[in-house]
């Protein structure tokens, strides 16, 4: 792609090349989007169109620098000039690739699949830099080395015909050394982060239920029945070994009826044992995926994680904020024309509404130990302890140093529940982390894909959240890939895809520590964009202001040459002695001893005889014509 990137002849070609590349990658990596119920025209068709268009626009923007480095500049580079062009080309390409992946991973059309960071998943010692740069640093590093290899191949082809191949080779070696330093620094940092021991400060005994039932096809009756069976089996196993569960997770979309109006319905359904009764019998808090009615008047629904206490009572919900484009949310869905089109083509006219708040859930640990809060917690940094005027203690003041009425934070677990592919988006997870999340508990329904690659791709995209925030990521899905990921990105427990099973595990919860990425977000991507902006300004000034001044345009150059010739002619005329009269002057081409030269050659005389030796040949001489006469010596006619 690097070679094509710099060989595009114009912006139109650059747009086309990037469009084809992005479209091809999207279709090959996400072909399974066609299985999203009857939404293939949107999930695959519209997403492919949008991704390709974004790619083409990115290619056109990125072509700015290659458009300036024309053949003239390459020839000058071959001659030993502009040794910095090698490094600028490599950096520009790498920054452009980060810009492309950032564009496709943010906004309404955001779809961070088919990226270089996903391809780098197994390079654990390199991906550790994500807690500083996010996935953009990983993408940049891999794009940098790909560009370096391609640049080296191109230079090897140019060196044989280059005028100064030594300078060209040295510039490439210098660029390779700089890239090597980047790689070495990232590698050392990655080794440290990957092998450093981390000790959890809490544990969360969790039951993950992977029922392997598609609720879209079988309804929630079958899904609830299988989930209840798997849950009870796993809870009994855990209690048999003395591990009391703290929380049970069911996947996205299990409940088909809408909360909170469905509270009464699930107190009676299923008929053999209602959902409410089952949760109360398990005596454990639950999080279950379902729908909520967030605006009764406008009939707005959300995709939510619904929270139940240990008695089965409804406690609240978190609604998905980043909806799947063209599936959960259709642009201009309220437009009458769009409603008509949706009704005719897809069969429905309503879409989901994104949530409007980030929610932090808290549950008490089953083995709480000492629930009393520490005396020093929640105290102001500065205070005054004063006795009463009679010298006795102030009881209110003393009580604050006797018993803290608050709860012990160590006896609670704070968690958030990114829904479905929200765990692939840093902008969502960063907000969830900032409100106090100690662990991410994701619930997902990917069973509709019917393809294992879809399950693993989703997991890979999500796994970076554990590294970025140095926290634990738990994924509970209905068909896979259910897994638990530690802060280094290791999978410490998982379940096979498309299998009916459950998992009970003591999830490690680590101390919350701010990472560079959690504080500064996508700063590295913005830095690269600033670099591209500075190159844009530099190129504009250099190629359109400085360079044109060095080279005089052809018409002006010819005019300057004519002026110099005229000046030289006037100077010669002034130095020439007065011309003789017409009677005294010789014929224009008459031989003159002063104006002949010896030519060693064989010539023929006028009589046809061959003459050898020096021969005098006449040189033409300028004849000064007196004023008022033409070149023949006659007077001009008026």
Low-confidence stretches: 579-638
Count of individual beta strands? 17
Outline the biggest β-sheet: 7 strands, mixed
Structural class: alpha/beta
Radius of gyration: 40 Å
In whole angstroms, the N-to-C terminal distance is 76 Å
Shape field? globular
Helix content: 40-55%
Mean of residue pLDDT?
Answer: 82
H/I helix tally: 21
Instruction: Quote the CATH topology of the largest domain.
Output: Nitrilase/N-carbamoyl-D-aminoacid amidohydrolase
Q: CATH H level of the largest domain: which superfamily?
A: Carbon-nitrogen hydrolase
CATH architecture level-2 label of the largest domain: 4-Layer Sandwich
So what's the CATH class of the largest domain? Alpha Beta
Number of domains: 4
Strand content: 5-15%
Describe this structure in words.
Helix 6 packs across helix 20. By secondary structure, this protein is an alpha/beta fold. It is globular, with a radius of gyration of 40 Å. It folds into 4 domains: 220 residues, no CATH class; 239 residues, Nitrilase/N-carbamoyl-D-aminoacid amidohydrolase (4-Layer Sandwich), CATH 3.60.110.10; 34 residues, no CATH class; 65 residues, no CATH class. Helix 17 links the parallel strand 8 and strand 9. Strands 1, 2, 3, 4, 5, 6 and 13 form a 7-stranded mixed beta sheet that branches. A 6-stranded mixed beta sheet has the order 7-8-9-10-11-12, covered by helices on one side. A two-stranded antiparallel sheet has the order 14-17. It is 45% helix and 14% strand.
